[in-house]
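Consider the following assembly input.
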Amino acid sequence: MATLSGSRPPAKTPRPKLRPDDGRLVRGRRSRARIREAARELFAERGFDGATLRAIAERAGMGASSIYRHVRSKEELLVAELADLQEEAWTRFRTEDDRSAPTRDRIQRFLDLQHEVLVESPDLTMIALRATTHTAARVARRVLALQDRTIGLLAEILQRGRMSGELSREADLLAAARTIFHLTQGSRTAWANGLQSPEACREAIDGGVAVLFSGLESPTAGH
Amino acid sequence: MATLSGSRPPAKTPRPKLRPDDGRLVRGRRSRARIREAARELFAERGFDGATLRAIAERAGMGASSIYRHVRSKEELLVAELADLQEEAWTRFRTEDDRSAPTRDRIQRFLDLQHEVLVESPDLTMIALRATTHTAARVARRVLALQDRTIGLLAEILQRGRMSGELSREADLLAAARTIFHLTQGSRTAWANGLQSPEACREAIDGGVAVLFSGLESPTAGH
DNA sequence: AACGGTTTGCGATCTTGTTCGCCTTCATGG
DNA sequence: CCATGAAGGCGAACAAGATCGCAAACCGTT
């Protein structure tokens, strides 16, 4: 269920025996929850850039600087959000996925779910993308990890298609998965900038996937 | 040669006859040039985020606020930079392009040039990408326009490939061009975050393009 | 030469994410 | 039962992009 900040494995380096949660940290956990709730609400109401940290803090019932006891940056709040949504989309896909269906359909379904989830808040996609442009930041790595996970799932689907003989044996499936993912990401950018309706965005993605499946080269041209 | 801010066509709407450049604006033009030079230098020295507006202003010999007489945001300075580089890459391509060469090679060459130009400053790609996440900003539109231009050029190349019979007649070439472009953009993000060498990035792009050309579907499977 | 309008420049100020130093709370251990 | 030390909180302050109102420079016109 992906905890907020870095998870805390019991041992890693000669850590001097981290004190177990003795109940004193309950207050802190509650604060974190309040912060996340306030952030989610305000992001929805005013968008990421419109949601001031001071406003979030106020709604969470604390001073602005206190937030930084629980979160290392404003973006981290949103990335936590995104991670949750992704998780939701993935589990939904896994539960209703028919592994024997045609690969094309499975990919389609995966992208549909992804789209459905992300289309509700342009901010999420956009700010996550923005986060990857702060090359020094921790959040950038986190977002890229999420992307890799998505790409991995796509590759998995394609892999099965190869095994069933639907897909060519020579094709580089990882490259294909990456291509599909980046295509979705890029198409959504145009949509989030108000240049496209969500449907047009979806169609752009589908178009790209279609070409990728059937290939550009003329079947007659003998390579 | 793409002027800095919005170009000034002599007439567009019932503009009350904009006074012609009477030489009074020379000072301004010189200032603009100084700003752009200072910005270019400082971006190269310290990167986009490291280059303070106040520092740029100082090097350009003026106060920080004065910059905003010539530029509407810091990002605009960088986008101007990017536009110039793109223009350079494109003209270089056009001059040395052999329109009768195999489509695959022409695409390859185009991407090579693009890569060569962009690989020198990770900042350019990154900040341009970041700009597209500020959905209200003018620069976002500008960057998206540049992207469209690139996609258009790719589509043009593909178009010729179809006419010569190399490429399938049914394939959606615009979708393909978009896919290629977004693939490059996405791959470069990983590189700019230090997760990949420039070569690995280039290979990732090539891999994606290869799959796109040959297609995923097994040739035996009869659609 | 005086006027009017426009471009350019400047310092003060605002905004907002983030850091800093200090204080309070509180379970633990001597 | 008090010292310890970590977790949480706070207001002040900082950094940097951006805005504002006012002043100077400048040009064509009267």
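Residues 19, 24-25, 27-28, 31, 62-66, 69-70 of chain A lie near DNA strand D (CB under 10 Å from a C1'). Ask yourself how this observation constrains the way the partners meet.
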